[in-house]
């Protein structure tokens, strides 16, 4: 390779016995220079220093700041960035660089084989998938600047700005929106990377220093995007909900009290309210109510909004109370309205378009009665590879990591059934329920007890709607709304962090 073309920037990210071999392999690429950025220049080997192409630059440790330092020093018109995570043989690096050296791309990002997805690596891939979804770069899948190596033309670096390399998420976002050609290359070490306790060490319920940096970088990008990242809101009647919150008497709707259900003190003296939003669900509503009635609720509330069939009448026949509105409130708003008027201390939320057996509903109510504030459906039955390459699931995983609950995986208030303690709801306000990821974030920040209660695989039960779920090469309408909901939650967290410094990195 022409040494006038290539500058290699090696960032010291971990103590590693393979660093010497990495530097040697980089030199075999015949670069103009190898720039080694390290907080410990005294540890640079003499054999590196003796090669005039090797520059050792001291940089006090702050993860990724070294990319900026190295890029500013580089003289080549192609820049290859490598951390000291592995030795990376010459042949692998040559293959990786081919698109950029043959002028087929301005940037080459790495993506890893999903089948080798293990442990906390999933967080890196989830954020990569999410960021590429935000920029409309779905073809890049999980590729990101956090999966090294990556390569950029000097022109691309100068157009975006070297300073942005200190936040790889910000550079990535600007790069994908710049009009430059960005491609991804599969990488596969075939072996485990060296482990750095300083970077990756933490308890299972905590975030490592690396993860805090990663999340903080992405949060800084999302926090400055338009509200919801400009994604669809799913037609929610937010103004209607806001008016109701300010003045409950200002809006009128029909309420009819249902019958009293048999109760045997299953819940330590607490009352259970089951809330079912519904729109044109006459075919299933009575079966849904029938299952819910078996777990001895104090009341079942059906919020019939925008129905033109007999949903409300059939619900009343089955003994449910009904809140009836002529207009559809939009997704999740019916849950919020039902929660506002529920009288029970324990709230259980189900959908009206499919019946969940009573045996699968009861654990959620039981968990609430035993002190859990938010009882979630455990939806961690997806393979990690599916999570990594599905933007809506990647968003769920990223949000749970943000609130320090990687143990929740992709479980979310987006998925029924879930249970909520009325006191916890009052701590965040019932209108928050119109955006489930935001509600989950607010509950976490309020210190509420959040836990899995049971696993119900609702993918087998949920109704498939082609107009919402089908798409080609873009996010579906349903995925757009889900991603937008998570953007709303991320931005809420970002504002809280600005005030309280929640996420230190």
From TrEMBL:
InterPro entries: Glyco_trans_2-like (IPR001173), Glycosyltransferase_2 (IPR050256), Nucleotide-diphossugar_trans (IPR029044)
Source organism superkingdom: Bacteria
Pfam families associated with the record: Glycos_transf_2
UniProt domain Glycosyltransferase 2-like: residue ranges: 273-373
Protein name: Glycosyltransferase 2-like domain-containing protein
């Amino acid at each position: 390779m022409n040494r006038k073309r290539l500058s290699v920037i090696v960032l010291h990210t971990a103590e590693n016995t393979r660093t010497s071999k990495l530097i040697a392999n980089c030199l075999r690429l015949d670069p103009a220079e190898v720039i080694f950025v390290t907080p410990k220049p005294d540890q640079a080997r003499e054999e590196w220093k003796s090669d005039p192409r090797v520059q050792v630059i001291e940089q006090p440790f702050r993860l990724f700041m070294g990319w900026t330092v190295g890029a500013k020093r580089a003289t080549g018109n192609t820049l290859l960035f490598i951390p000291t995570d592995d030795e990376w043989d010459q042949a692998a690096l040559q293959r990786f660089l081919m698109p950029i050296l043959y002028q087929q791309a301005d940037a080459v990002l790495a993506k890893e084989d999903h089948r080798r997805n293990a442990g906390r690596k999933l967080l890196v891939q989830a954020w990569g998938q999410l960021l590429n979804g935000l920029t409309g770069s779905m073809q890049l899948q999980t590729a990101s600047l956090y999966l090294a190596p990556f390569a950029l033309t000097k022109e691309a670096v100068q157009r975006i700005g070297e300073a942005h390399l200190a936040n790889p998420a910000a550079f990535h976002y600007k790069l994908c929106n710049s009009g430059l050609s960005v491609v991804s290359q599969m990488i596969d070490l075939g072996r485990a990377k060296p482990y750095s306790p300083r970077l990756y060490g933490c308890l299972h319920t905590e975030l490592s220093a690396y993860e805090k940096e990663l999340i903080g970088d992405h949060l800084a990008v999302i926090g400055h995007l338009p509200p919801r990242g400009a994604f669809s809101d799913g037609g929610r009647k937010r103004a209607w909900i806001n008016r109701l919150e300010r003045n409950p008497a200002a809006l009128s709707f029909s309420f009819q009290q249902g019958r009293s259900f048999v109760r045997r003190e299953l819940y330590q003296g607490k009352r259970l309210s089951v809330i079912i939003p519904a729109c044109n669900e006459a075919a299933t509503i009575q079966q849904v109510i029938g299952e819910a009635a078996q777990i001895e609720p104090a009341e079942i509330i059906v919020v019939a909004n925008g129905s033109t069939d007999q949903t409300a009448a059939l619900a009343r026949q089955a003994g449910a109370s009904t809140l009836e509105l002529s207009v559809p409130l939009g997704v999740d708003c019916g849950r919020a309205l039902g929660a506002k008027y529920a009288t029970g201390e324990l709230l259980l939320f189900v959908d009206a378009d499919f019946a969940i057996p009573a045996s699968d509903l009861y654990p959620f109510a039981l968990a609430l009665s035993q002190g859990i504030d938010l009882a979630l459906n455990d939806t961690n039955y997806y393979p990690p590879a599916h999570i990594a390459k599905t933007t809506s699931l990647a968003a769920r995983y990223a949000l749970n990591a943000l609130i320090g609950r990687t143990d929740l995986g992709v479980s979310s208030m987006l998925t029924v059934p879930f249970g909520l303690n009325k006191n916890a709801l009052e701590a965040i306000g019932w209108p928050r329920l119109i955006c489930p990821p935001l509600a989950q974030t607010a509950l976490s920040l309020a210190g509420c007890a959040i836990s899995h209660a049971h696993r119900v695989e609702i993918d087998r039960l949920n109704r498939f709607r082609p107009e919402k779920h089908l798409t080609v090469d873009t996010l579906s309408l349903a995925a757009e709304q889900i991603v937008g909901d998570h953007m709303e939650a991320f931005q809420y967290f970002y504002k809280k962090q600005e005030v309280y410094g929640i996420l230190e990195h």
